[in-house]
Amino acid sequence: xxxxxxxxxxxxxxxxxxxxxxxxxxxxxxxxxxxxxxxxxxxxxxxxxxxxxxxxxxxxxxxxxxxxxxxxxxxxxxxxxxxxxxxxxxxxxxxxxxxxxxxxxxxxxxxxxxxxxxxxxxxxxxxxxxxxxxxxxxxxxxxxxxxxxxxxxxxxxxxxxxxxxxxxxxxxxxxxxxxxxxxxxxxxxxxxxxxxxxxxxxxxxxxxxxxxxxxxxxxxxxxxxxxxxxxxxxxxxxxxxxxxxxxxxxxxxxxxxxxxxxxxxxxxxxxxx
Length: 273
Prior knowledge:
The protein is an alpha+beta fold and 273 residues long. 42% of the residues lie in helices and 15% in strands. It has helices at 3-51, 54-65, 85-88, 92-119, 136-146, 167-170, 179-184, and strands at residues 130-135, 150-152, 157-161, 186-190, 202-203, 208-210, 217-218, 224-226, 235-236, 238-241, 244-248. Mean pLDDT is 81; it is low at 33-37.
């Protein structure tokens, strides 16, 4: 089980446990407040009954005023309607607790959603996912007409031609994931120089990729030919469905080692760097 899968399972479990613990604590505090108030009320009632007896006071009043003022018997007072226990126990503290709980739940839900979106591979869009590059025929026509690789900005990649005659040498050097593209005549090269991360442009005169930062040079298929770079240009697998080409930028494959030259291409003019 990968670390991403463990994280994917652990985050929702931790969120649920935290919410349950918070709800339990909040209800216990609310119940304690209500029970404490009830005991105080009962104690006050008992203390008052010890000091004054309501029945004795009423009898004494009747006896005192019966000769001069007739006493009308009043109807017994109606018993107060029972109140909802939730209404009785709803205090400012419980309101605060519930507000904190709601805020905590919203925050943790947002965090869990963001974490799931980060861990779930199918949820990725843009760079890091599969990027549509266009139709294979259109890409090859552009390369031939302009004598330059086809640039796909969303994939941060150059799509360069890969010669059919170089496939034999490539099979002993390159990752198998690259051969769908190689056999179709293209290679997707990551635009970033593996030396210090500069963007590597195309040099029309030499027909090579040449890094302007420190002078690293690569042939048409991104194999290192000079400069301080530790390897050739990194590359992405290419998928071809019918005529549609997509570049899987979620799988960056390190470039070939120094000395690999499957095409034998030499500079075809002056260098740009």
